[in-house]
From TrEMBL:
Protein name: Coenzyme A biosynthesis bifunctional protein CoaBC
Record: residues binding CTP: 100, 110, 146, 160, 164
GO cellular component terms, semicolon-separated: phosphopantothenoylcysteine decarboxylase complex
Co-factor note (free text): Binds 1 FMN per subunit.
Source organism of this protein record: Mangrovivirga cuniculi
Length: 220
């Protein structure tokens, strides 16, 4: 039944944004609140899973004894934490909004507004956490990614599904009202490797977490 359908399973989830340091007071970040990832973590724990949640800076907390939260700040830290737990995990869920770039050389003192020309920030590509782990995923491991799109949504999501070696991908589009970052609601489609496609209406992220976890359980 519901309480034990993930009993004995280890689930690793990334959530929230990453902050990439520019100087001691500034960073490059994004609007992720962590709500989607935390809701999935709660739902997996409710099914009896042992959950490791690697989260960027968010204001959310959980009291669930089956969820262990590792707090990180940057993409490099998120990779390190996630990678160290990936091989012992049965199910991997990548819901974090990871910054694709970071400032190449963060400055150790506050950048002052003193020169006549605005400063330029040189960027370096961050590692792709889902791709790094996807490359070494074993047959006995299941992974689900997310795709946050603004255009050519379906095609881009299918490309990410393939490239990052996910078993399934959750597509959300910033063109849909009430979907994506911050809101309590989201509107998603779940696209499977088998082309099994599930379109869900706009609803609460906790309710969608139930649909996502049910999809995974049916797919295992
Ligand atoms: O946190 P909320 O406010 O509730 O918002 C939820 C959400 C919008 C953040 C979430 O639903 C979502 O879409 N998360 C993924 C956002 C994203 O960055 O998607 P992407 O299309 O850029 O990345 C594709 C996949 O690769 C994702 O699974 C992402 O976690 C992963 N990735 C991307 C880049 C990177 N360097 N490392 C990664 O692991």
């Amino acid at each position: 039944d519901k309480k034990d359908s993930l009993k004995g399973k280890k689930v690793l989830i990334t959530a929230g944004p990453t902050y990439e340091k520019i100087d001691p007071v500034r960073f490059i970040g994004n609007h992720s609140s962590g709500k989607m990832g935390f809701a999935i973590a709660e739902e997996c724990a409710n099914h009896g899973a042992e959950v490791q949640l690697v989260s960027g800076p968010v204001s959310l907390k959980t009291n669930n004894p089956n969820i262990k939260v590792t707090q990180v700040t940057s993409a490099l830290e998120m990779l390190k934490a996630t990678d160290s737990m990936s091989s012992s995990s049965d199910i991997l869920i990548f819901s974090a909004a990871v910054s694709d770039y970071r400032p190449s050389s963060p400055v150790s003192t506050k950048i002052k507004k003193e020169s006549s020309t605005p400063p330029t920030i040189d960027l370096t590509e961050n590692p792709d956490i889902a791709l790094t782990i996807g490359k070494k995923k074993r047959k006995d491991q299941y992974s689900l990614g997310f795709a946050l799109e603004t255009n050519d949504e379906q095609a881009n999501a299918e490309k990410k599904l393939e490239k990052k070696n996910f078993n399934a991908i959750v597509l959300n589009s910033l063109n849909d009202e009430g979907a994506g970052f911050g809101h309590d609601t989201n509107k998603i489609s779940i696209i499977g490797k088998n082309k099994k496609h599930l379109d869900l209406p706009l609803k609460d992220k906790r309710s969608l977490a139930k649909d996502i976890v049910k999809y995974i359980i049916d797919d295992l």
